[in-house]
Fold each of these.
Amino acid sequence: MTQQYFSIQHSLSVNIEPVSIDHVPTSRLALENEMPIPFKMANDVAEIDSNALRSIRNIGEQADALADFLQMQNNKINLIMGYVLAQQDNPESRFNTTLFGAGEIKFIAHDNLTLEQAVRIKIFLPSDSAAIYCYGTISARETQEGDENLIEYTASYTRIRDIDREILIRATLRIQQLQLKQRAELRQQNGQQDDQQINPQ
């Protein structure tokens, strides 16, 4: 039974390239060997950052100052990694997600992919200074209302590193928290506006 992962509605830049099933790596080691170096570097750095920040929270009074210092160093690295990863983004195969998660993505494209088509997937996560390189298959397709040539495709991952899946899990949770915060702030603003209308100065 395939494990189910949480997904969230959000727009991310992705590259989707149809490939022959013969070109899909047959193991995670083969995927590692094929993966462009910038993807390995970015995601290894993201994992190191996450582990380092978790560790220093337990060292006492100096933790905040050290965390601030590490965050500044991390920001410098992120700027460089963002530039390097941008070179891996191919405009000819670029699409935007309507939904993404650690098990699948959905994106809208023209009617040129078939069910069970193998695809190479690059997912760019600029806010996390990370990018995912993996493979999947087209597991569903749905015609968009008003334009029969536009299809919302679902691509389910078939070959992905565990570290990359963890990064996707963290990214979905971070974006969910941000969306919930934005909704709460919007509700608060609307409530204040209603109060002003009921009780004008």
Amino acid sequence: MTDDRFFLDATGLLCPLPVLKARKRLMSLSPGETLTVQADDPAAIVDVPHFCAEAGHTLVSTETDGPVQTYVICKT
């Protein structure tokens, strides 16, 4: 069973909601833990990496499968 604390389905949400929800979810994680975020908002391609850089989190990976992007963010 997957722990929902580490996965955020932000598909169907438009800017800035994917980043805002990711920020809120990351607050509950400990440094070093990762959050996987799925989004289909075209702006997320720019917003998620920018958020990680500004907040100091590490963007571990980015994958695209059709309209859905998957981001793995490591909390620092």
